[in-house]
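From the pipeline queue, job 12 of 40. The input is one protein chain; the requested action is below.

Action: predict structure.
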Amino acid sequence: MKRPETRIIHTRGARLGSVTVNPPVERASTVLFRTEEALYESKPGYGRMGLGVHRELEAALGELEGARHVRLASNGLQACALAIASCVDAGGHILIPDSAYGPTARFCERRLTHMGASCTRYDPRIGAGIADLIRPETQAIFMESPGSLTFEVSDLPAITAIARERGIPTIADNTWGAGYFLKPLELGADIVVHAMTKYIVGHADAFGGAVITSDERLYNRICATSEDFGIGLAPDDAYLALRGLRTLHTRLKAHEAGALELANWLAERPEVAEVLHPALPSSPDHAIWKRDFSGSSGLFGLVLNAIPEGGMDRFLGALHLFGMGFSWGGYESLLIPCDHQLTRSKGSWTDTRPGPLLRIHVGLEAVSDLKAELDTAFAALKGPA
């Protein structure tokens, strides 16, 4: 059996007469047919359903996650919403981790409410305790590990085992693990979602989402919901996602190495109260991470100690290699303050930290240059000597 990185590179559709390594991009809304039967029976019958490049991307994503079925979406949030809406009906209920990606939580707590469903947050470290939160009307459990911004690792096997006993589908956001470092389907999850915008695209120049499963019944529901909402992925974005997927393994290893080196360096800084990286032995989730993951990506967080007035503005103003912008997964390093976007339950994570929360994505620059810039920024944070 060839390794995943080899299979993904060599997973290609049957392109009759093609001599190109990459598939051509077909920008088309209308697909022409010669007979009435073909017009109504052929798939795809319309460009929104995707053409050749989409099929090759789906095949490669199936190899990545070890799954039989893939449905594409235009971005990561749409993929999460599609998976959730395929499982939760009016009168239903979903459980989501308190550390879920903010827009995903917003969809569950705002849009699902308008659709007649309800949502409950759970502690991302709850494990088998999830059983106590399941109601008769619970129709799905959403998981995101590590959690967005605060990087708690959930015990996916414990949660999925309880859900399977109760006949409840589980959905796992695997964007951080990128399909290489975590295999949720092997740990019992029913559906995996990806924001391909991040590591799969890898160059901060395209959007994409994917919903992946091996369950035929769930896949049929996902397809029906996707068709009802008119969801599709633009051919140019599909091409860029496929191109990025071919080099994912090599890029992830570089992101991983750089992030671990920088995280360990930050853990020794007097300005830093805590580094939030599950691959560090100091993490409270390290044992679960080591059991379930085969590696770590380039995204992690840190909590600063209390800072002087104006310190954050001075710190951010001293950064040039680290851009300040949303998203992550590209070749460039990013750093953002996160306190304004935390939407945690009252009395939870945010009340026990001494200073501001930052999130870092380590790109592909020399780590020595990143350290030097942060060293300058920490000096600026303290103010004039």
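Job complete. The CA atoms of residues 189 and 320 lie 40 Å apart.
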